[in-house]
Design a protein that fits this description.
By secondary structure, the chain is of the alpha/beta class. It contains 10 helices and 10 strands. It binds S-adenosylmethionine.
């Protein structure tokens, strides 16, 4: 089965993800990172969205390790950093673009080490405290892979699961088939997305229970996409979102394809012709011992 994620969709999401992200991690680090001791491991980093957001928000980790199993996405990290951080930072790289040096405006440097690796098999041995980030990834993960992520917490590490899809999508105005489509979409999210059978939105509850059982501290904040079809980019984004839903659900057992097609074409018309608002529920979840 092809679990590859579309580079164009992941890159299209970047500005919408940035607006959605909460400040829960930044607030935590303001309290607990007095000596800048934390470095970053960004698991399932894709094309670098989380690192870019961190830097845009003044969160500079000295060492940044980016892990993903898709080399095509990893290869676009450098160009994405350059595109989104122009006027803010300069980016130098080695020949294969897997080791980068980012020089920030205040002349401090961050080092980026990009690795093609399976997140389930990545372990840390050093005692350096890390923020271990999983951005827009946890709903794709299976129970065993989430269990693996908890093994990384050790003494000082912090786990940060951001943009965790919570199973809720609300269109205003709504369409009579919205609930029907969402129910199939949530079933689809619980298929294999690269880590065995994914938990989908149920991963949030699983993480909460697991953190509580292990006696870890857990903080949760909302980080929804709220998109209105005001600008041309918003229209393109919404149309791509519904097209991807249509494509994903089309071959599912039991789906009524006539309803799916009708839903998609009605939505397209609304996006082009009416005022429409899309809310996709996400949570940011921070887990720590401190
Ligand atoms: C929805 S994307 C999120 C990308 C990025 N974190 C972001 O916020 O834009 C999920 C990512 O998980 C990666 N992925 C899926 N299974 C993986 C695995 N077993 N090991 C490493 N990366 C994996 C995909 O290649 C993809 O880049």
């Amino acid at each position: 089965m092809n679990n590859k994620f579309s580079k164009s969709w992941i890159n299209m999401r970047i500005p919408y993800d940035h607006i959605a992200r909460s400040f829960i991690l930044i607030d935590f680090l303001k309290k607990h990172n007095k000596e800048n001791k934390f470095n970053l491991i960004d698991m399932c980093s894709g094309s670098g969205s989380f690192l870019i957001w961190s830097i845009l928000n003044g969160l500079f980790f000295k060492e940044n390790i980016l892990i993903d199993n898709d080399i095509n996405l990893l290869k676009s990290v450098k160009s994405n950093l350059r595109q989104h951080l122009k006027n803010i930072s300069s980016i130098k790289s080695n020949n294969n673009n897997m080791n980068l040096i980012i020089t920030h405006k205040n002349n401090t440097e961050s080092f980026v080490n990009i690795k093609k690796y399976d997140c389930d098999n990545y372990t840390t041995t050093d005692s350096q405290p890390y923020v271990i980030s999983y951005s827009a990834a946890i709903d794709l993960m299976s129970r065993p892979s989430i269990d693996n992520s908890f093994k990384l917490i050790k003494e000082n590490n912090v786990l940060f699961f951001s943009l965790c899809f919570d199973g809720k999508v609300k269109w205003t105005p709504s369409h009579p088939y919205d609930k029907y489509i969402l129910s199939f979409f949530n079933d689809h999210q619980q298929s294999d997305k690269g880590f065995g059978m994914a938990l989908g939105y149920k991963s949030i509850n699983y993480i909460e229970k697991k953190a509580n059982k292990l006696g870890l501290k857990i903080q949760i904040r909302n980080s929804p996409w709220i998109v209105r079809n005001k600008l041309k980019d918003d229209i393109l984004f919404m149309k791509r979102y519904i097209l991807d839903i249509k494509k994903s659900l089309f071959h599912m057992d039991g789906i009524d394809r006539t309803m799916l097609r009708q839903w998609h074409s009605d939505k397209c018309k609304s996006i082009e012709q009416k005022k429409i608002k899309l809310l996709v529920g996400h949570k940011d979840i921070l887990i720590h011992k401190l």
